[in-house]
Amino acid sequence: MVSVLAVADEVVDSLVLGIGVQGRPDLIVAAGDLPFEYVDGLMATYDVPAVYVPGNHDPDLRGYRQSRTGWLRAGLPAADPGPLGALNADGRTVEAAGLRISGLGGSIRYNDGPNQYTEAQQRWRSWRVRVGAHLTRRRPDIFLTHSPAQGVGDGDDPAHKGFACFHPLVDDLEPTLLVHGHVHPYGGHPTDKAIGTHTTSVNVVGYCQFDIDPGHRDFTIVRRRYGA
Questions:
Q1: SS3 call for 14
Q2: φ, ψ for residue 197, nearest 5 deg
């Protein structure tokens, strides 16, 4: 089993001090709208890798490319645009700590801010993720998103509406978990929800620690805290 510390949207300062986590996680996954320095701090505290997708309040990371000599943007050298050393899973499938993670960041478009997509734009991006995942001939263990799927833990207001295109992607790739942020509980305790036949959607605003068996369907929620 791989121990995962999943975080999103709200900084929990005690985590950077190593408080509130059972044992040491093997991996950090960040579902967006967090200061990159916070994710850096978590990686340093637990000395583990991290995988992330950007949220709608994060900087626009499009146009960056990692080469053998470092990061480039428009062909020119650039600093690492995200958390230092973390893997950006937005629009692709990555491997970390023995897990395969497919990612799609951003939210539904509601103004002119960064990392926002129309349903049609996100559908195109989801199709590319599906093709890329199939080429590896192994389903992802986790589908990491910022926004939830439409009707599965999303909100009623325009900014927090989920993506309908996540449903066919989940039906096709059948990840064990869909891990998302974006929708703040505001003192509530949202329940984990089934999506598709084999997938559970988990809101990790604040943080959630879980154990997951790579390549299988077994997972256990260890502890969680909604909000800071």
A1: helix
A2: -90, -35
Report the C-alpha gap between 3 and 28 in whole angstroms: 9
Average pLDDT score, the chain = 91
Give this prediction's pTM: 0.93
Token pair of 116 as six digits: 């926002």
Distance of alpha carbon 71 from alpha carbon 100, whole angstroms: 23
Q: Strand, coil or helix: what is 45?
A: helix
Nearest to 91 by CA among 107, 82, 78, 102: 102
What's the length of the chain?
228
Q: Is the Cβ–Cβ distance between 204 and 16 less than 8 Å? A: no
The type of residue at 104 is L
- 191: Cβ contacts below 8 Å, ≥ 6 apart: none
pLDDT digits (tens, 9 = 90+) for 65-77: 666 666 666 677 6
